[in-house]
Each structure stands twice: as C-alpha cells, then as structure tokens.
Amino acid sequence: MKRFTHKRLSWIGASILMTMTMLGLSSMAQAAENTKPELAVTAVSTLSSTQRPEGVPSDFVVTPNGYFAASCVQTVHANEKLHKDGSIQHANGLVSKPATCSKAHYSLNGTRIEANGAISVAARRNTHPSISGWVIDTDYTSSSSIGRIVASWTVPTAPSNAGSQVIYFFPGLEQLPTVQSILQPVLGWNGYGDSAWTLASWNCCVDGTTFHSDPINVSDGDQVIGDTYSTCAAGASCSNWAIVSTDVSTGQNSTLNTDPYGSLTWVFGGVLEAYGVDTCDQYPASGTISFTNIAVYTQDGNQVASPPWGKSYPVGSQSPQCNYGIDATSSTSTLNY
User: Fold this and answer.
1) Element (H, E) at 26
2) What is the DSSP letter of 303?
C-alpha cells in the first residue's frame, strides 16, 4: 500500500510539474506574442529630399497625420485603451504613460507644430511637383455631435509604379473649430515601408504623439469595413470610443480603443492622402476607390438621413494632376485619381 501511494504521489507530482511547465511555456509564448517586434512606420529618409517639405528631418516617419519623430508614434495594442492624457490602460488594468514627446512634428504641408500644439514656423510648401498631403475627400460639418461613422470599401490594386510613395485611404471624424484629434480607420500602401497594403486604426495627437493600433496585412480585392463609434449609451457624452478596421475577407481586425478628446462634428466620408507622389502611376493602378454603405449617426443614436457631403480638392493645382474627381451620394463617396 505504501509502495502504491508512493507511486501515486510521484505521478501526481510529475503531473503538477508537467502542468506548471506547460503553463510556463504558455506564459512564455504569450509573452513572446505580446513582445513581438512592432512594424516600423515608413521613414522619411526613404523619400527623395525633393519629395518632402523643406525642414522635415530625414529620421522622421510618415503617418496619416503628417511627419513625426519615430519616438512620437505609439502603438496601442488590442485590449488596451488610449486615454485623453495619453496614458494607456493595459489588458491587466495597469495604466502607463508613454514618455512625453518633446519633439515638434510637421503637418502635411510642412508647418512645424510644437509638442504643445503651438505653430512656430509658417508653412513651407515643397517646390518640387510632388504630392504630399490630402488630395481629395468628401466631408461636411455637423450641427450636432456625431456618435458613429461606418463605411465599406475594397482594397485597390497596387500602384504600377511602386516606389517609396505612401498612400492612405480612410473615412474619419474630427472636431471643429479647433481640431484636437482625428479618428480614422486607415488603409495604407507602403505605410510600414513594406510596399504592401495594411490596415490600422489611428488617433492623433496628445502632447505631440500620434497613436495607432497593431496593423494587419490585407490584399488587393479584400473587402474592408471601417467603423468608428462611441461605446457609451446613446445620448451620453462619451470618452469611450472604438475605431475598428476590419478585413471582411479574412475576418481579421485592428482595433483602437480611445478617447476622442472632444465632441466630433467634422465628418469625412472618404479621403485620399498621399506622400511622395510625383507621377500619376504612383497611385493605385485601379484609378478609383469607392466608399460605400456610408452611415453616419448622431450622438443620440439617430442615423443622419442624407449626409450633405461636400467635394473637397485640397490638392488644388499642385502637380501632378491625375484626373481627380469625386462622385458622391448620401451613402457613397467615389474618389477618382
């Protein structure tokens, strides 16, 4: 009997040891997953010096919100939340504050913006015929706070001339008259120096820092849904928002849980933003993108029956001119380039 008990205890001990080992391996695997290298945002140095506004340092990176020091671009992982003060609440409940960004960033046209938001240098536009900034979009100003915008689109074909250019497409929300942030589910070409399509959710800028979710890879022809919405009860003033970028074709999504920093009234149905484009074949070869099934809801949960989309051409007369055009209905925004 004692011999049997000894064997049984030995077996139990071995089982416990094996279980602890497996748990340890699982924890290590989870830790490895949580600490896997982050994709690096495309460096300004990959663009020709003639393809960026004067004064932008070569060690900065290209984001949907302009040019930033790499240390001022922060990833917010799944199950984390970005707070208004720039702190990040982790899945385990702990809250951390990233190092304060002390460096200025540059807007799309080269305006220098200090970390505290002060504009210190007048805009300096690139004299080379190259597109760097918002090109065309549909937008309108709402008289009441917006609580949600959702839209669908298809990943276009890659540019036939795939150089160092960066292309972004997205719907989004901002504040007016003072823009504090922009919430945007973003489809990007070469956004991470990869000459490929990726999908991520972004919010900018707390103390000079811009934030994005973990990007996912997507492919030409994939169906995408971008859904930006308040997670609070209808009618409530809400600091809890989700920006969900979903590849319907694969079932993957990239989500940023965030505080929008203020009431959102500037609504974008579809935006084309580009950096380092100096020939028309550097845009996606399809030449067009359609944001469809666009639905906008007020903070009280009511759908806006007919959003009055305006057609905007920030590109102006800047070269190259690439057959830019916009077609819009209450639920679609088609951008031609």
Assistant:
1) helix 2-34
2) B
With H, G, I as helix, E, B as strand and everything else as coil, classify residue 246.
strand
Parallel/antiparallel/unpaired status of strands 197-206 and 333-336:
unpaired
State the pLDDT confidence band at 124, using cuts at 50, 70 and 90: low
Closest CA to 225 of 202, 207, 206, 243: 243
In single-letter form, the type of residue at position 177 comes to P
pLDDT in tens, 221-255: 999 999 999 998 887 778 899 999 999 999 999 99
Which residue, chain included where needed, has tokens 């074909």?
157
Q: Which residues contact 215 (CB under 8 A, 6 or more apart)?
A: 39, 188, 191, 192, 198, 199, 200, 254
Distance of alpha carbon 91 from alpha carbon 81, whole angstroms:
8
> 127-175, pLDDT tens digit by residue?
454 788 899 999 999 999 999 999 999 999 999 999 899 999 999 999 9
Q: What is the pLDDT of residues 12-33, one digit of tens each?
A: 344 433 333 333 433 333 333 3
The CATH number of 41-337, from 3.40.710.10, 2.60.120.700, 3.40.50.410, 3.30.420.10, is 2.60.120.700
Residues 6+ apart with CB under 8 A from 248: 152, 222, 223, 224, 225
Helices and strands counted in the chain (H then E): 1, 24
Residue 20, classed as helix, strand or coil, is helix
3-state DSSP call for residue 29? Answer: helix
Interacting residues of 103 by C-beta distance below 8 A, sequence separation 6+: 68, 69, 71, 72, 115, 208
